[in-house]
Design goal:
211 residues, alpha+beta, Beta-Lactamase, Arc Repressor Mutant, subunit A, 2 domains, two-stranded antiparallel ribbon, 8 helices, 7 strands, 42% helix, disordered N terminus
């Protein structure tokens, strides 16, 4: 008697089966920007949104100091809105680069406005953490870190001290120090500072499964 398999088959990616020339450079660039793990918003000098990458759309849905209304960016307070408009004018019309804080309190979002061409600027949203989870997991796998060592490395990347890591994980500080020593040996870094600097410089990668 024949048996049929019930194993789920992963859907093919949208580009499967398509010849390289089937995609325009603009489409390919948009796909590449979606693979970058920080928000990028392309803006006309009048404030109209021309393009949002995946992380920017996620940030807007989360309400991190910015909202999208009638295809234009809005901030959660008037002062930030004025700063955004001024910085956009400087970037799109004068070719200047500006760093600004959008929103207030816990909703504040750090961003930079940079010129792209006359009349167009890019808003670059700040990263939410020193290192994104996917990048860290890939780094840990490449260097054969254990699960416990990976958790310690992630905590160090957040600025947590070894003593605080020990308290958080319910272990002795000597255990954490041993794990840090093992991480440094496996990654070829001489100090914790060098290790954190290495992790902070990991490429920002986005997972294949996105919200």
């Amino acid at each position: 008697m024949l048996q049929t398999s019930t194993k789920a088959v992963a859907p093919a990616p949208p580009w499967a089966g398509a010849a390289p020339e089937a995609w325009s450079p603009g489409t390919l660039l948009a796909r590449a920007l979606d693979e970058v793990d920080f928000g990028i918003v392309l803006l006309a000098d009048d404030g109209e949104v021309m393009h949002l990458n995946h992380r920017a759309r996620h940030a807007l849905r989360a309400g991190q100091g910015l909202q999208l209304t009638d295809n234009r960016l809005r901030t959660s307070d008037p002062r930030s809105m004025a700063h955004l408009q001024h910085a956009l004018h400087d970037a799109a019309q004068r070719g200047l680069r500006r760093l600004l804080a959008l929103g207030q309190g816990d909703d504040r979002q750090l961003a930079a406005l940079v010129p792209v061409q006359p009349g167009v600027a890019a808003l670059l949203l700040g990263r939410s953490s020193v290192c994104e989870d996917l990048s860290l997991q890939c780094f840990a796998r490449n260097h054969e870190l254990t699960a416990a060592e990976t958790r310690v490395l992630a905590a160090l990347g957040r600025g947590v001290t070894p003593a605080e890591i020990a308290r958080e994980q319910g272990v002795k500080i000597s255990t954490v120090r041993t794990q840090i020593s093992a991480i440094r040996q496996k990654t070829g870094t001489g100090t914790i500072t060098a290790l954190v600097r290495l992790v902070a410089g990991l490429p920002p990668m986005v997972g294949a499964l996105r919200a």
